[in-house]
Each structure stands twice: as C-alpha cells, then as structure tokens.
Write a sequence for this structure.
C-alpha cells in the first residue's frame, strides 16, 4: 500500500491548524473523495511584531500581552516577545576600530534578544513589562500550543512634552505582505515614520508606494528596502519623496519575506499617535469608535483599482444612522486619495462611520481611515481609526486600567448581542463578564466593568453571541500637561480558530 496520500492529508491538516488554509491534491491516480464539512480547530502557532515605541527620551512605554482563556492547541505551549536585533550601520564597518565595537555591540544585542521581554505563562492573565526613553526596543515573537489562539499584545507610550507629545497606543500586528495606510502625510507640519519589523531569520525586501490627491507621488527610494532578519527599520516618509503632500495613502508590500508595518505620526499642533493599516480593500467599510467630544474628524479614502468609487457616508450614532450634512457622499477617483472634513460630526454623542456604495451593484473596493482630534488650540490631541473587520467570534485588546478605557461597539446591519469579558489583572483580581445588546445601525459606547480586586492592567475580550456583525474599538485616555491625551485600537477577529477540512479516507484509491 502506498502511504503518500495519507501523508499529504495529515500534513495539510497540520498546515491548516497553523496557517488557516490547506489543500490536498492526489499525485496521479483517481481524485480524492469529497471531504466532509470543515471543522474549526484552534491555531497552533501565532506571530506578532511590535515597532520601536518612540524616539523621545521622555517616552514611558508599557508592553502588555495576553491569551484569552479557552480551548487551545496541543503540544508545547509558549508565548514570548523578544527584543528585535539592531540594524547594522554600514559606516561602522569602514573603520577597523568602529567595526570591532560594532561587532561587540551586535554580540551583546543578540544575547539580549534571546531573553524574552514578555512571556505569557497562562491563558486568561495578562503580563506587563516597562521601558523608558528612546532605547525601548521593537519586539518580535511567537506563541504556540494553548497560548497561540487569540494571543494579543499592545504597547502604550506616553510622551509628556516635545514634538512627539501624546498618548501612543498600537496593537502589535501579525506579519504580512500587503498593507494600506490612508491618512499619512509628507507635509512640513508632520513627522511620519514607516516602521517595518521582520520576525523571521532571513531578510525581507519591501516596497513603499505613495498616492496623493493627484495620483502617484514619485519616489526614488521607496523600492527594495531591506529589513534584516529579526530586525526593525524606520523610514522618514518625507525622505521618500521631494513632494510635500498633506493627504497621502501609503501602500507597503513585500517582494520577499514578510513584515509587520505601522506608521508613527507626529503633528506640530496635535500631538502624535500610530496609524495602523486599514482593512483590505472592500466595497463597504466601518470605522468604529469616534469619541463623543471629537472636535475635528477627517475621512481619508483611496480606491486602488481601475474604477472610481462613489460611496455613501453614514454616521452610526447612539440612536440612529444618518449622513453628515454636506458630506452625504464621497467620490474617490481611481488611484487618487480623497478626503472629507466632517468637523465635529458626533456632536456630543459617540459614533462610528460606515461607507457603502451609492449603487449597490457597483461596490468598488476601497481603503479608508479617520483622523480624529480632541481638544482645541494648544490642547489638541490626535488619534487614527482605520477601517476594520468585524469582531467575529472573538477579539481581545490589552492594557486597560481602572479608569480611562471606553469600549465602542457598532452593529452596521442587524441588531447583535456581545459578551465582554474583563480578564484577571496582571497583578491579581477576578474576571468579570457583561453582556450588551447593540441596536441595528447604532454605536454603543460603554465603560468596561473592571475585574473585582484589580491589580495592574487587564484585557478585554469581545465575543459576538448572536445577531449581525459587530465592529469594535477601545480608546484609552490619560491626562498629561493639561491635555486629554487619547489613543484608539480596533478589535478585528483574532483568528484564533481555523477551518480544517475533514478528509474522508478511501483506502481503495491507495492500493498499487
């Protein structure tokens, strides 16, 4: 009897548990029998990367990581985030003395990178680490076994003064090969860095394209950017082009390898925060969690295909959905970045933005994000909300404290119910569970119920229990220097489970 077919099936099932996709094709001979319906199984391996938090010596950064309680994969369990390796400086290699010092520093860095900065030990309890100043590292890591499904991490940085002032929060991202960033800029009033972090041992090569209101923005140095293995690089966007463009869409792709990509944005008048990637191009998009007291909201959108897009702009408010006055629709030309100034669109109530095609049978794929400002004058603070997918079965976000967290839930279609679990605290406390109903076409903003006896920080896990899809975000607020600083993180499905096809074995096709 040949064993080739059985080995292929077993290998494909294992691959699906890790990557979420598998295909079995019999090499020669009759086609394999039709498989049974796919089963949902926990992932067995997850990867995350976190960018270097800040270039400011005044920065104070807290890293948090968490795996929700529940069924996990089999095998050895570990969930560790380690410092990324520094990128070698070619200039140090031209002088023998400098080269020797560089080699010694690299050896120390490699030794340090083998020690986890964060290591989750048990599902259901977050872990915390802190670092101060500009030396706080980028992180790369992997979770396996029962710690892999739903593994999440965040870095939260507070900078009290200077050009980078603000509360900067970013959920560590899964490495990928394609990212869209509407809302970036090369204007003189903005300092923006594209952070590329490579989790693998071999180098990755990335390209960065820029698109403004007039189309492609010429760049001589955006192609073929090498990111060494287990390292992170940051590129100042204004050095990628000679053009100063206020509204840009950046497109990051890799021609080899994979990276995590995020953009650090600092504004001379409105502080700083991270811009995370928009949901993949789609005809309908949702951006959840505009604060009730937003003083300025700008929508930035881009159509990457060959067709123009016409979309309805709808605010999903506390009680109903409506189109903002003067901005009921937005025309987005193919290959050009479009924007709409929505001003203080929420008018004292929390809301979310939905974009839908003007013509239902013409859903042109687009990407989009919101630039949101709170405060006025020298008390302004900025944050970004990208279009995001629904919570789905489950999503988590870390680094919540007793005060300052707001969870926004929006149901763009049918009414939905969600279960929100506040985990045990990193230093102690008992989990708590709340259930919420989100009416169709509305946004519900709630203050999460903190764990009883909370010590340290805790994680929030949102699960859709019935009804239509729910999109969610979490905002954090801190007061510093008289400014209400804030940051917003979206909660897309954590993809902790994958569909694995059940193969039906017909041994008759395996005989010689």
């Amino acid at each position: 009897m040949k064993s080739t077919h059985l080995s292929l099936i077993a290998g494909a099932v294992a691959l699906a548990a890790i990557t979420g996709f598998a295909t079995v094709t019999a090499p020669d001979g009759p086609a394999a029998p039709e498989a049974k319906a796919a089963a949902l199984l926990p992932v067995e391996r997850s990867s995350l990367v976190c960018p270097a938090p800040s270039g400011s010596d005044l920065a104070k950064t807290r890293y948090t990581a968490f795996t929700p309680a529940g069924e996990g994969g089999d095998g050895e369990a570990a969930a560790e985030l380690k410092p990324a390796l520094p990128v070698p400086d070619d200039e140090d290699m031209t002088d023998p003395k400098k080269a020797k010092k560089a080699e010694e520093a690299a050896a120390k860095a490699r030794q340090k990178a083998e020690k986890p900065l964060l290591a989750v030990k048990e599902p259901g309890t977050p872990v915390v680490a802190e670092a101060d100043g500009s030396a706080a590292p980028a992180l790369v890591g992997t979770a396996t076994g029962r710690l892999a499904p739903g593994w999440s991490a965040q870095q939260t940085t507070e900078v009290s003064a200077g050009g980078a002032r603000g509360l900067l929060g970013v959920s560590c991202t899964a490495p990928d090969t394609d990212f869209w960033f509407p809302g970036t800029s090369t204007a003189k009033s903005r300092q923006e860095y594209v952070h590329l972090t490579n989790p693998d041992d071999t180098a990755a090569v990335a390209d960065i394209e820029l698109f403004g209101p007039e189309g492609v923005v010429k760049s001589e140095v955006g192609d073929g950017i090498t990111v060494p293995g287990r390292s992170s690089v940051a590129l100042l966007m204004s050095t990628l082009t000679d053009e100063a463009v206020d509204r840009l869409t950046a497109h990051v792709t890799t021609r080899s390898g994979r990276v995590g990509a995020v953009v650090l944005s600092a504004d001379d008048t409105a502080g700083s925060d991270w811009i995370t990637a928009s949901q993949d191009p789609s005809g309908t998009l949702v951006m959840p969690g505009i604060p009730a007291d937003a003083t300025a909201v700008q929508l930035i959108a881009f159509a990457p295909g060959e067709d123009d897009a016409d979309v309805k702009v709808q605010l999903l408010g506390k009680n109903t959905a409506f189109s903002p006055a003067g901005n009921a629709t937005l025309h987005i030309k193919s290959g050009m970045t479009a924007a709409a100034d929505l001003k203080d669109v929420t008018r004292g109530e929390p809301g979310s933005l939905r974009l839908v095609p003007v013509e239902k049978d013409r859903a042109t794929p687009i990407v989009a994000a919101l630039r949101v400002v709170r405060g006025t004058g020298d008390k302004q603070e900025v944050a970004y909300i990208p279009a995001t997918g629904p919570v789905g079965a489950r999503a988590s976000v870390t680094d919540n404290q007793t005060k300052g967290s707001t969870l926004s839930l929006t149901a763009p279609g049918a009414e939905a119910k969600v279960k929100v679990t506040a985990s045990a605290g990193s230093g102690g406390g008992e989990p708590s569970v709340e259930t919420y109903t989100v009416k169709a076409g509305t946004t519900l903003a709630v203050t999460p119920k903190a764990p009883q006896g909370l010590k340290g920080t805790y994680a929030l896990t949102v699960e859709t229990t019935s009804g239509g899809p729910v999109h969610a975000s979490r905002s954090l607020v801190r007061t510093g220097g008289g400014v209400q600083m804030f940051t917003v993180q979206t909660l897309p499905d954590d993809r902790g489970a994958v569909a694995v096809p059940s193969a039906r074995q017909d041994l008759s096709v395996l005989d010689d």
The first helix runs from residue 4 to 19. DSSP finds two helices and 38 strands in the chain.
